[in-house]
Amino acid sequence: MTQQQKKWIIIGVIVLVVIFLISGVKNSYNKMATMDEQITGNWSQVENVYQRRADLIPNLVNTVKGYAAHENQTFTEIVEARAKATSVNITPDKLDAQSLQEFQSAQEGLSSALGRLMVVVENYPDLKANQNFRDLQAQLEGTENRITVERRNFNESVQAYNAFIRMFPKNIYAMIFGFEKRDYFKSLEGSEKAPEVKF
Amino acid sequence: MKKLFLLSIVALFSSFLVSAQTDIFSKPAKEQLVVDQAGVFTEQEITQLKEKLHQFSKETSTQVLIYTTPDLQGYDVGDFAQRLGQSWGIGSKEFDNGIVIVFKPKNSEPGRITIQTGYGIEPLIPDAVANQIIDNEMIPEFKNGNVFNGFNKAIDVCISLTKGEFTAANYESKIKKSENIGGAVFILIIFLITVFSLIGKSRTGRHYNAGTKSNLPLWAALFMLGSGSHRGSGFGDFSSGSGSFGGFGGGSFGGGGASGSW
What we know:
Helix content of chain A is 78%, strand content 0%. Chain A has 6 helices and no strands. The N and C termini of chain A lie far apart (88 Å). By secondary structure, chain B is an alpha/beta fold. A 5-stranded mixed sheet of chain B has the order 1-2-3-4-5. In chain B, helix 2 (43-60) links the parallel strand 1 (34-36) and strand 2 (63-68).
């Protein structure tokens, strides 16, 4: 083998390695970008279902008012909690731990106001038998389930992404391209399972 | 030493438990739409339900899964059904038109029932309607011990509420953009079905009336005539081959639906 041939073989090998590396980087980059988008998409689903719950509340409050007009304290609380919950929104590029925490606590406030409303409802058997109210109750239950599901989907996509960017050598690419670890939407104690909305 | 031995036994056991818990939601080897783990149906009832549901799936791509279990493994019944539907992929991937009905018989604890709707079913069977199906059609029958009747009635309602929306025709056209095999006749049939399903939808509306038996809408009757040459198996049969079930479609569930207990 001449010196010339050897040189070409070496160049060939280097070119192959570079192509191999580039395609690896490209695949990883695309995967990371897709997973990142997935998280954003799942987050908007989370916000949708919380919005859905907020949308049910005026109707629910009105129905309950028809039977329990003098429970003003509870109504005021729930209306305030709803206003607060709907005012906290997160833009997808700002999904950090702190804003998630704020969102969470505003929604949690609404959950507990709803809980107190349910306690009030217990005292009005006529209300509990009302078909309109029962429909609203079913919708609320379904929405709480949706919240659980969409939160889980969000957290699962965050977990998949975080695991992906930690693997070698993707962790290096992630560092180069600025893909950072994403935050989970942590649940408060015991809210991992769908709460039972029983009246 | 003894302690270590015990510890390893415990670890082994718990790993079994963990795997058993995740296993309940993994896809079964034989995909079918009636799974009676609790043994509440007779052979004949299972066959009857299966025939109805497999036929409906073939006809419209909408899949209804019936799953009975003596033990919900600590899950809430709605949560259980959602996970089941999601991981088995009930309904088609294109429309997310799956429905999962999970039943736990009454024993020392109250009986539990849920209807979970896939994303595509949510507008057709809203939560309040799912709840009314449970309250009006299912629980009264369950209380009398007629589990089969409760299911049969509920399924009929689900079928009549969803059948206008997803027809085999618009399903086919979505998954196979161009198909020339059937030629003019095939296109004509699709055209007729689409027209009649539109008419049928506007005619019957989508409101759920408790207690009324659904009559076969006009378009469905015509649909039967149109596909009568196929094999006379009642409804139209687009997929070729035997009457067997083609498998789950990969649909997703978002937690919509309702649950009840008795």
